[in-house]
Design brief:
InterPro entries: UCP037692. The protein is α+β, with helices and mostly antiparallel strands. The protein is built from 1 helix and 4 strands. Strands 1-2-3-4 form a 4-stranded antiparallel sheet, covered by helices on one side.
Length: 69
């Protein structure tokens, strides 16, 4: 499960989409950029393929809840 999820806008102009995300998954920190098309650009280390689909699904749900609603 994802914990300590935070996000912030990349640009001060709220018309331009893009968010920096940070969170922990299985006690490992992850950081990335969430693009408006749903693509995640990992900044430090990408999650392994075994966990990537689950993590991306969690992130999409969180962003839909926090940003788009």
């Amino acid at each position: 499960m994802i914990s300590h999820f935070t996000y912030e806008r990349l640009f001060s102009n709220s018309e331009i989409p893009g968010w920096k995300i940070n969170f922990f998954y299985k006690q490992r920190p992850y950081s990335g950029i969430y693009h408006s098309n749903g693509r995640i650009e990992w900044l430090l280390e990408a999650p392994d393929l075994e966990n990537a689909a689950n993590i991306e699904s969690y992130i999409h749900e969180l962003m839909l809840y926090h940003v788009y609603e």
